[in-house]
Each structure stands twice: as C-alpha cells, then as structure tokens.
Write a structure and sequence with these properties.
By secondary structure, the chain is α+β, with helices and mostly antiparallel strands. The protein contains four helices and three strands. The protein has one domain.
C-alpha cells in the first residue's frame, strides 16, 4: 500500500486490541508512511510483525514498536489526540524505549520528510508531561 498523501511506501501493521482505542477509526490495522509519517487506516492488516526498520532505524523493536508508530502517526494533530499521545508516550516508556529520542532520530533521518515539524512537536511533547 502506498501513502495516499505522498505516494511513498508504507508499513502496514495490525493494532493489538489493547491499543485500538488510540487508533482513529474502527479498522484493526494501520499503515505508517515511510516518508511523511502519516498514519492511515488498514481494514485487512498483515498478520506478520511490522518491519518499522523500513521507515527508519530509529524505531524501537518489541512491545514499544506499535505504540511508537501510532504516536508518530498522531503527532500531526497534537491538539485533537492529546490524551492518546500522552497515553502512548507512557506505553512506549514502559516498554523500555525513549519516545523523545525516537522523535529526535526521526527528525534527523534524511530519508524522512515528515508532514509534521518533528522538532517543534518534540518540544510540545515535553510540555505535555
């Protein structure tokens, strides 16, 4: 699936039931654009674990991967998804990853042209906590 916003490749993934409350819409999956970092709903997500390294080496593995992908995908609307983003920040941290470091690394990744100003969002995220 290509990103409907910019046409770049996406990484589709299933969203576990306990994280679906953070996913806009009712679909069981999502796709994160490898270039603009926009999040898109996926009605029929793949069963295999997502390969977020295709987006960036900055992405964590394991339990932190999907919450981090959701968090990054929601950053374009911090005001609308403030509660979800705050909860996802905590989930990523509990899973042993530093979400602020991930956002920093994504901002520095030359292969990413994020639709959101990640440096500005990082500062705003710090203010949320």
């Amino acid at each position: 699936m290509d990103c409907p916003a910019c046409g770049a490749a996406t990484v589709a993934f299933a969203v576990p039931a306990d994280l679906r409350e953070f996913l806009p819409g009712g679909d069981p999956g999502a796709a994160l654009c490898a270039e603009c970092l926009r999040l898109h709903p996926v009605a029929d997500p793949p069963a295999e674990p997502p390969a977020f390294a295709a987006v960036s080496d900055a992405f964590p593995d394991g339990e932190a991967a999907v919450p981090m992908a959701l968090l990054v995908g929601l950053l374009d609307s911090l005001a609308r998804y403030r509660a979800e983003i705050t909860a996802l920040l905590e989930r990523v941290e509990r899973a042993g990853s530093d979400p602020f470091l991930v956002v920093d690394r994504l901002a520095d990744d030359p292969g990413i042209d994020a639709a959101t100003d990640l440096r500005r969002r990082r500062h705003q995220l710090e203010q949320l906590l």
